[in-house]
Amino acid sequence: MADKATDPRHHFIETGSLPVMETFYSLQGEGSNQGKPAFFVRLGGCDVGCVWCDVKESWPTHLHPTKTTDEIAREIQLSGAQNVVVTGGEPSLYDLNGLCRSLRAINVSIWLETAGTGPIRGDFDWICLSPKKFKAVLEENYLLAHELKVVVYNKSDLDWACLQSERVDESCALFLQPEWSRERASLDLILPFLLENPRWRLSLQTHKYLGVR
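Above: the chain sequence. Below: its structure as tokens.
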């Protein structure tokens, strides 16, 4: 693991800034908060590297401009948004306490979407944990999750999803989401599973159906 002298992520901690790939105001298309307006802050940098990722351009940290947490908060405040989604990339790469303090100052709800591969640092109202097979979740993050969302690409993902659900709290909402590039095939796997396992729910990427971000 890189130390403070060689790890470029320490720059963001020390300067109070974060690498931001994009920001936009739209609808949350997935999971428990589906259909609610939200301002998205997509951070650059990812240590997971899903082969089917639809935002691979978010992976390199150094390609994205930095913004201070106060600059991000001002942009959100001007939009009039009441909910903020912090996503990536992989947001657990960064200490997000400073960002959360700036967002608390403008009185918005803060939602995190993460694969949980690093420590979750920040004050969040809702944490969606979306574990991936490509890199293990930090064990402590399972019990922080309000929502577990597993992307289904093939049949083995259903068994893996069950194993993941054993690690979260009983109150955690459980979602299966078809991988977009093979949505019909994934749905054919998911639908019978849901009928036999009613604790799980279906998550669809409704923003893609709508043609919005």
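The domain at 9-148+155-171 is CATH 3.20.20.70 (TIM Barrel).
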